[in-house]
Amino acid sequence: MDWPIQQIAALAGTTSRTLRHYDDIGLLPPSRIASNGYRHYDAEALHRLQRILLLRELGLGLDAIAGILDRTVGAAEALDAHVDWLKQERQRLDRQIASVEHTITTITEGGVPMPQDMFDGFDHTRHQKEVEQRWGQDAYARGDAWWRGLDAPARQAWKQRVSALSADWADAARRGAAPDSAQAQELARRHVDWLASVPGTPASTPGGDLRGYVTGLGQMYVDDPRFGANYGGTEGGTFVRDALAVYAEREL
C-alpha cells in the first residue's frame, strides 16, 4: 500500500513542493512514481518522513538530517530517541507555562515576582547540540560566551533589532515588494549584517561559506513553518528567501 504525494503532504502538514525537494536532494525518494508522474510513498518512506519532520523540529538542516538518517540505526530505535526528546521538551514547556502563570498570579495579588521563579524552563543552552552539530563546538562556545557577556539592555536591544527586521520583512512582503527591489535588497543587507553580529556563525567567520549559509537559511524559512511564521507565513518566508538569494548572487 502507498499514498500519493498530495495526501501525504496534507497529512504531514507540509507541501508537495517540499516533498519534491526532499526527493531532488536524495533525502526522501518516493517508493514509486505513477504513470501520471505523481510520487507515491509506502510505509517505509513514511517512517523516514516522520523522522525527517522530527529532526526538523529540532531545527537541524537538511544536510545534517541526511547524515543522521544514513547511519545504521533502526527506525524504531531512532524514533524512540525522538520520543525521549519530545518528552523533555514537553516538560520544559510545562515549566515555562507554570512559571508565567505564577508570575501572573503574583502580579495580580500585588506581589513582586522573584527571579528564581520567573525563568524556570527558559534555557537557551537546549540548542547546544544542534549548533555544535551544524557548525562545531567552537561556534556554540563563542555564541554562548557572547550572549552571556551581554547585559540586560544589550540583550533587549538585540531582541528589538530582530523584531524590527522581521516586521519590516513581513510588511514588505505584504505590500508586494519584488525580491530584487531596492527595498528588499536593503532588508537583505540588514539581515546579513544581523547574522554577522552573532559570533560563531558562518556569517561572522572570515573565509566561511557566507553565500551558502545565507541561501541555506533562506530556504529554511520556506521549508520550516516555524521560521516562516517570523515573516508572515509561507509567502513571507518565500519572499525573504528570494530576496536573500538575489543579494547573495550580487554581493556575496
Task: Explain the overall architecture.
It is a single chain. The protein is mostly helical and 252 residues long. Among the domains are: 1-71, Multidrug-efflux Transporter Regulator, Chain: A, Domain 2 (Orthogonal Bundle); 151-252. 69% of the residues lie in helices and 4% in strands. It is built from 13 helices and three strands. The protein has a three-stranded antiparallel beta sheet with strand order 1-3-2. Helix 3 (43-57) packs parallel to helix 5 (75-108) and helix 7 (128-135) packs across helix 8. The longest helix is centred in the middle third of the chain and has 34 residues, at 75-108. It is globular. 20% of the residues are buried. The mean pLDDT is 78.
Biggest β-sheet, characterized?
3 strands, antiparallel
Multimer state: single chain
Q: What spatial order of strands do you see in the largest sheet?
A: 1-3-2
Count of separate DSSP helical elements: 13
Strand content: under 5%
Average predicted local confidence, pLDDT: 78
Helix percent reads 55-70%
Shape: globular
